[in-house]
Amino acid sequence: MPLPVPPTWPAAPRFRWGPAVPWFVVGTLLVAFGLVLAASPDGASWTNVGLGLYFYSIGVRYGPRRGFGVESRDGALAFPMSRLRTYVPLAGFAAWGLGCVVDGSIGLPLVLALWVVALALVVLINGLGGEVRLDPEGVSLPPRHRIAWGDEVTSRRFRTMRVGGVTVRPERYDADPSALYWTLRYSATHPESRDELADGRALDRVEREALV
User: Fold this and answer.
1) Integer Cα distance of 32 and 38 in angstroms
2) Pair (89, 55) in one structural domain
3) Same domain? 158 vs 92
4) What local confidence, expressed as pLDDT, does residue 200 receive?
5) What is the structure's pLDDT at 136?
6) In whole angstroms, what separates CA 97 from the centre of its chain?
7) Of residues 149, 140, 155, the one with CA closest to residue 190
8) Are 53 and 143 in a shared domain?
9) 3-state SS record for the chain
10) Are residues 92 and 136 both part of a single domain?
11) pLDDT in tens, 96-138
């Protein structure tokens, strides 16, 4: 039986690509509209094409996961961050900026400056990758947070969660978002089972979905 959707999160989609569909639909409309204008004698609208590609890149973040995306190594249970889901939207942002340059609505230096700022913010918030690591003593969160067990794990709106005072956005990880939430929740509320995090038994528990 699949893991239930965490409290306060929207209901699970009826099919795997459900959360990504709105982004792809809007992106398709923007690209089509931009190409129609680009083919007209009145001028181009590559800004819309670039914006559509940006929406596509955001949709990638919400696409389905493959497997559980969980590893047991070095005495801990690890949920690696997905570089694809974290950095692809930056490429889409760059496509939007280049569309603006082609249309002449904004200069290339400004686009490059905005892209560098966006990249710096992503790296500052997420680090150059990172992972959520659970061990018997606590949980490590990117970029440099360390939280001892005993702090509350709660679900929040917009498919996020709070671990202690740190916000975690599961879409940035390879794991199924519900699996990440319920693993953190289970480890926080079952101190007698935390030794499993160090020897691989926790990975087996995640794969059996025995977390609720």
Assistant:
1) 10
2) yes
3) no
4) 87
5) 93
6) 22
7) 149
8) no
9) CCCCCCCCCCCCCCCCCHHHHHHHHHHHHHHHHHHHHHHCCCCCCHHHHHHHHHHHHHHHHCCCCCCCCCEEECCEEEEEECHHHHHHHHHHHHHHHHHHHHHCCCCHHHHHHHHHHHHHHHHHHHCCCCEEEEECCEEEECCCEEEEECECEEEECCCEEEECCEEECHHHECCCHHHHHHHHHHHHHCHHHCCHHHHCHHHHHHHHCCCC
10) no
11) 888 888 877 777 778 778 877 877 777 666 655 678 889 999 9
pLDDT at 44: 62
- 110 shares a domain with 206: no
In a domain, 23, yes or no: yes
Q: How many domains does the chain have?
A: 2
First and final CA of the chain: distance in angstroms? 11
Residue with tokens 């905005």: 114
Query: Would 3 be classed as within a structural domain?
Result: no
pLDDT tops 70 at residue 41: no
User: How far is Cα 18 from Cα 13, in angstroms, rounded to an integer?
Assistant: 5
pLDDT beyond 70 at 161? yes
- Structural domain boundaries, residue 29: 12-64+83-120
| Same domain? 58 vs 134 | no
Query: What tokens were used for 126?
Result: 């997420």
